[in-house]
């Protein structure tokens, strides 16, 4: 059975080898590595060399993070990487919420967002969106200008109820984190989501629970365990979220384990 962590900042992960090995031991099989710019992408490439013996299965994503001001050179460099590297998704891109950008920085990021969405549309890539709280609705309005983009995920979503409903209605995906185990806000989000829209992520090493200083991909195993025990009659959440992640990132769908077992008999 596969388990996907659809949002990991590998370049920022502490104690890299131990953390990755721990997740593999817990059964986390597939990783989407999110680079917030060219520098992060190169650092992740270095990490992957170190991790090669561990047999990590991963997809790569790059996009200029909306909370950071970026330069025209960064935009050009991302364009070059998209031509030359095996990249499955653009992101995380979107709109800022937490940081103040100057008018010039904001305008450049705004143009950069449209440019990157245009690339995703032309190259038929998945899009990982960072646009939370008050930024989610304007992001939805921007996406209306890209009607051919269907494989879109709102990562670690926090938004008003009616906006979440609109995201679901538009059949975008939603990234759910281990916060759903303990946080009422995220449980309310969960209750609005159809199972086919949910992908799981940690955004490692960004911390979640106040008792933990960092998150790590191994937390996905705990999250799936929680989901299977809390909603046992609904479905196997490792299987459901694997199907969703594979649809989002345009990967071939696996056979259900029961079919494989039947054939083996
Ligand atoms: Zn992130």
TrEMBL record:
Chain sites annotated for binding a divalent metal cation 2: 130, 155
Superkingdom field: Bacteria
One GO MF term attached to the UniProt entry: metal ion binding
InterPro entries attached to this UniProt entry: Metal_Hydrolase, TatD-like
Swiss-Prot/TrEMBL keywords: Metal-binding
Name of a matching Pfam family: TatD_DNase
Positions that bind a divalent metal cation 1: 7, 9, 92, 203
PANTHER family per record: D-AMINOACYL-TRNA DEACYLASE (PTHR46124:SF2)
The protein's name in its UniProt record: TatD DNase family protein
Native species: Sulfobacillus thermosulfidooxidans (strain DSM 9293 / VKM B-1269 / AT-1)
């Amino acid at each position: 059975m596969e388990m996907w962590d659809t949002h990991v900042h590998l370049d920022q992960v502490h104690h890299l080898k131990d953390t990755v090995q721990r997740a593999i031991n817990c059964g986390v099989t597939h990783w989407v590595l999110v680079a917030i710019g060219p520098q992060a992408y190169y650092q992740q490439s270095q990490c992957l060399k170190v991790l090669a013996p561990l047999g990590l299965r991963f997809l790569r994503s790059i996009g200029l993070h909306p909370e950071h001001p970026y330069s025209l050179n960064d935009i050009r460099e991302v364009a070059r990487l998209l031509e030359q590297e095996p990249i499955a998704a653009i992101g995380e891109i979107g709109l800022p919420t937490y940081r103040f950008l100057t008018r010039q920085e904001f305008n450049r990021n705004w143009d950069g967002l449209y440019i990157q969405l245009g690339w995703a549309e032309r190259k038929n890539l998945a899009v990982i969106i960072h646009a939370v709280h008050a930024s989610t609705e304007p992001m939805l309005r921007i996406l209306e200008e890209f009607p051919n983009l269907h494989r879109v995920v709102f990562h670690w979503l926090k938004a008003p109820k009616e906006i979440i409903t609109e995201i679901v209605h538009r059949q975008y995906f939603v990234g759910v984190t281990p916060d759903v185990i303990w946080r009422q806000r995220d449980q309310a989000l969960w209750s609005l989501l159809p199972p086919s829209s949910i992908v799981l992520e940690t955004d490692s090493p960004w911390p979640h629970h106040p008792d933990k200083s960092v998150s790590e991909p191994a937390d996905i195993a705990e999250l799936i365990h929680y989901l299977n025990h809390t909603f046992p009659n609904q479905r196997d959440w490792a299987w459901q979220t694997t199907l969703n992640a594979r649809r989002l990132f345009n990967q071939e769908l696996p056979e259900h384990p029961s079919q494989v077992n039947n054939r083996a008999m």
